[in-house]
Amino acid sequence: MIHLENISFTYPKSSFSLAFSSLKVEAGTHVALIGPSGSGKSTLLNLLSGILLPAQGDIYIHEEKITGKTEAARRAFRLDKIGMIFQSFALLQYINVENNIMLPLLLDGQPITKALKERCRELLKSVGLEGMESRYPAQLSQGEQQRVAICRALINNPKVILADEPTGNLDHKNATSVLDLMLQQVRISGATLIMSTHDRSLFSKFDRVVDINELTRESI
Amino acid sequence: MKNWFYLASQYIRFYKTRSVLLLTCLSIITCLPVGLRTLISHYQNELENRAQSTPLILGIRGHRFDLTMSALYFRTSLERSTTMEELEKLNKTGLVKTYPMFVRQTSNHIPIVGTTIDYFDFRDLKPSSGTLPMLLGDAVLGARAAERLGLDAGSHIISDQTNLYNLASQYPLKMNVVGVLQANGTADDDAIFTDLKTTWTIEGLAHGHDDLAKKEQQQNILSRDENNLVANANLTPHIEITPENIASFHFHGNESDLPLTSVICVPKNLKSATIIKARYKLSKTAQLLSPESVISELLLLVFKVELLLHSSFLLVGAATAALLGLIVMLSIRLRKDEFNMLHAIGCSRKTVAGIITVEWIVIATVSLLVSTAIIMLVLYAAPNIGRLM
Fold this sequence. Notes:
The structure holds two protein chains of two kinds. Chain A is α/β, with parallel strands linked by helices. Chain A contains eight helices and nine strands. Chain A has a single domain, classed as Rossmann fold. A five-stranded parallel β-sheet of chain A has the order 6-7-8-3-9. A four-stranded antiparallel β-sheet of chain A has the order 2-1-4-5. Chain B is α+β, with helices and mostly antiparallel strands. Chain B is 50% helix and 18% strand. At the A-B interface, helix 2 and helix 4 of A face helix 1 and helix 10 of B.
């Protein structure tokens, strides 16, 4: 379970603040985080990943208290237990698809074994990019790039996947296709998915929809 | 660390043009001052070695640099000369062994050095093919001169015409190449050696022509007195010395007045050196120099120029370092999104810094290797560069 309680966060030198009393997400559920631009969706995802720390309150991810960890420990936790997907795909242009997918492992200093390469190929096959291991991001379409980013988020079997508007840069057809693939893969892995989105047409695909405005209003 | 290196090398490989440009700039920045310094050291050593192997030089009183450069490097610009009379006086002292030289003409712009056979022993010059010059009109080529001219023993060379517009001046002389010397890495490699009399002949102080005592030549005599015969233009001088005409070559005037541009002197011992130096200190016509001290003086002047160069290199280096710093900063700023993403997926700032550092270390190392290769190449080509200069 993911549990956030009595959260209060403000950016230094900014009037923006995010505060709510409680948010609980059951393990393995798929949550759509909605709200207008600037409402704090990305901030909440950054708090969950440990990139930001709240001024008050505690965050637990599967019994582990994130807020009690040092920055290095949070970073290690993120690398090991959380898969991140970004709106801009955030693939490294200078390494091929296979290495982009294995980037979290490369950064962790793990040796790239045959088994890992095999898992990489399986993931690519599952998102319809079979045989594209040696291609570079610039040789792929935007939809294909985001599918590679999904594979990267799943490579080390994370417990939680945080996706920040992953379909924001895609057309509707591509967005639906990518989301379906992502949900399918997350379901197979059994991970918890929290994804921020503007696209109302996608809400029906999630187990739960959390409106960030309502979340903060409840706490007032 | 292995993965840092892998990511860094992938970045360098992917952005080839950028990396090659950076590598080239760094290589030039590194090899320019170091290469120049190495080249200067090379010439400094070469100058000093040549000077140290030549104890003393005698020549006409005048500019010491010109005399030294003429005796050591066969520069043909020394207009004034000493005489055989001065050499005879020097030999009579019994204090030194002498090696007279006359260096004023060229062939294909390569200096022709007139000297005695002893000079070859003094410089330890041995022929790699053919023999040393034995007869009037014989020439032996230095190794690089032979290579440059593409000649070997058995071929011919012609001295350069000194004045194309003076019909009365001496004709160029055709000489027989009788040998090529082994290379010794000094100025001797870039010269043509002949007997002193051959250079005097080129200079016009000796000549050969048909015998005016012969009956068929009598018609060419314009006037005669006790000492001289004056012939008309029908009497053609020989422009080549052959076994048939060698006997007709002769000098006019007093042999003791024949010119020498310099005389290398090797004192028998320290005492002899001191005495002979003291004697020539007061001479109004000749000077006796120690090439080592002249070259040291010359190098001091060069070092002053080099000091200026070093100062400018320091300034350019500081400006370049600032520019490099700016490039690094801009490169990091351009890649900010990439680093933020890496941080977001769990990469530490230390790892990011490590990857950037490895990228720069790889580029700097390759630049250093390229610079070293260029410097080695410059050192290898140094003698040829020196000749071009």
